[in-house]
Amino acid sequence: MLFDSTLRRDLARNFGATLVVILTIVLTMMLIRTLGQAAGGQVSAQSGIE
User: Which long-range contacts (CB under 8 A, 24 or more apart) does 5-8 make?
Assistant: First the structure.
């Protein structure tokens, strides 16, 4: 029983850490793409403000 709970805790911790890393990478890629479009003039300055 102790091994099972330790294994579950380790797997959950690794899953959480992996999820955070993947989300960080995706958000960074989206930010870079948006900034690139803004620098190229493809995004208007008023597009996010309603």
Answer: none
Largest CA distance in the chain: 60
Q: Is the pTM of this model over 0.85?
A: no
Taking CA 24 as the corner, what is the angle to CA 8 and CA 12, rounded to the nearest 5 degrees?
5
Cβ-proximal residues to 34 (8 Å cutoff; 6+ apart), any chain: 43
**pLDDT tens-digit map of 6-35:** 999 999 999 999 999 999 999 999 999 989
Using the structure block, give the residue that is written with the tokens 């992996």: 18
For residues 27 and 33, what is the distance between their CA atoms, to the nearest angstrom? 10
